[in-house]
Design goal:
75% of the residues lie in helices and 0% in strands. The chain is globular. The longest helix is centred in the middle third of the chain and has 17 residues. It has six helices and no strands. It has one domain: Alpha Horseshoe (Serine Threonine Protein Phosphatase 5, Tetratricopeptide repeat). Helix 2 runs antiparallel to helix 3. With 102 residues, it is mostly helical. 32% of the residues are buried.
């Protein structure tokens, strides 16, 4: 995420993919957090469909995890998706995230 703070979104996305694909990320909590970050990066790049697809994977992976970072990622995703309230998939993701937070 250091690269994203420097504005290198492509480099950030590449490293997040490497973390998932090459390093495996067997731990669900870690995988969920990486997927949440990847969704945010894709949204910042203007790839709304890619962000939603990645966040769907994040929610699938995060089911049942009560870690603080996962909860923060859920809240972040919900806030970012407010801009897309007219998009049914975005609303579905926000509702799923709200159920996780409850």
């Amino acid at each position: 995420m250091f690269l994203s703070r420097l504005g290198d979104l492509d480099g950030t996305e590449e490293h997040l993919h490497l973390a998932i694909d090459i390093h495996g990320l067997d731990r669900r909590r870690t995988r969920a957090i990486v997927l949440a970050c990847l969704g945010g990066i894709r949204l910042r790049q203007g790839d709304v469909d890619g962000a939603m697809m990645t966040w769907r994977d994040f929610l699938d992976c995060a089911d049942g995890i009560r870690a603080v970072k996962v909860q923060a990622s859920l809240q972040d995703m919900r806030v970012r998706l407010r801009r897309y309230s007219g998009v049914p998939e975005a609303q579905e993701l926000r509702e799923r995230a709200a159920r996780f937070a409850a």
